[in-house]
Design brief:
16 helices, mainly alpha, 2 domains, Hypothetical protein af1432
């Protein structure tokens, strides 16, 4: 398991470009800290950002939420989502706007497209467990789980070599390759990033451990274990769709993931077909 020390966090702060928390998040968190905050005031903050407002409406009307009627007003959406839901979605949506694509050695547009797909698939899978874990936290986890990758792709011109090597081998994980090449890894940087934006501790912890194949067995928190299993299932399905093959460590974790999600092999295949249909519809 990755160990985080003050020295590690200090090195990240000094050596990597970590975007500051956006003003809209600070405004929402300031409002939420009041004695009796009103949700309609949160809607007044969000409606000033047209891109965020449009994205929230698109998400809440997606099949991942399964609503019986269309929500067309941002105030209605905010009332439906509640404080935690609003904060989670705004965090994730602002994330994609915070990195310059000019200085990156990988296509950040393609990277965020994949992260967004994983976020949506997280929610589709999470529909089966919506009484145990919130859809919004699964969306945020999907967007942020690899948020340490862009800072590394901006800092290291040869970072793309690490990604290509990880795609071709199952002998090393991506974090092991990163440690060997750069003496740090995107899970640690992502953990620091998520903490600096004040994401929930559970999401920060999953970001840190999501490449550790042993952690599914060792997590004692039920919601955290469930969220990690959903994330790994979503990553695997998206990887199959985009690259034509499962995750390199899927053969190690598949049994644990299916057990935690209470899925049979047939259930897994049905779910995979549903998700593939969703991804194909949204890419056309």
């Amino acid at each position: 398991m990755i160990v985080i020390t003050e020295q590690v966090l200090s090195d990240i702060n000094r050596n990597f470009i970590i975007p500051p928390k956006p003003q809209i998040l600070s405004d929402l968190q300031d409002l939420a800290s009041k004695e009796d905050p009103a949700l309609f005031e949160a809607a007044d903050i969000i409606v000033k950002d047209l891109a965020i407002s449009a994205a929230i409406l698109k998400i809440i009307n997606s099949p991942a939420y399964g609503l019986s009627r269309t929500v067309s007003d941002i105030k209605q959406a905010v009332m439906f989502l509640g404080w935690d839901g609003v904060n989670s979605l705004v965090q994730g949506l602002k994330l994609k706007q915070m990195f310059s694509t000019d200085n990156s050695c990988i296509s950040l547009e393609r990277f965020w497209d994949t992260s967004t797909e994983i976020a949506h698939v997280n929610m589709i899978i999470g529909q089966r467990f919506k009484n145990q874990v919130s859809m919004e936290s699964l969306y945020t986890l999907g967007l942020f789980h690899d948020c340490g990758v862009p800072p590394m792709a901006i800092k290291y011109d040869n970072y793309v070599k690490a990604l290509h090597h990880a795609d071709r081998t199952n002998k090393e994980t991506i974090v092991e390759i990163e440690e060997r090449m750069f003496k740090t890894n995107h899970a640690v940087i992502g953990y620091y990033f998520a903490n600096s934006w004040h994401l929930p501790k559970e999401i920060c912890d999953i970001i840190l451990i999501h490449h550790d194949v042993k952690m599914l067995e060792h997590i004692t928190d039920t919601e955290e274990q469930l969220s990690l299993a959903i994330l790994k299932m979503a990553e695997n399905i998206v990887n199959i769709v985009k690259r034509g093959s499962p995750l390199s460590d899927w053969h190690i974790i598949e049994g644990n993931v299916l057990d935690i999600l209470h899925l049979s092999e047939d259930d897994k295949l049905d779910l995979q077909e549903d998700v593939i249909d969703f991804l194909n519809e949204n890419s056309s």
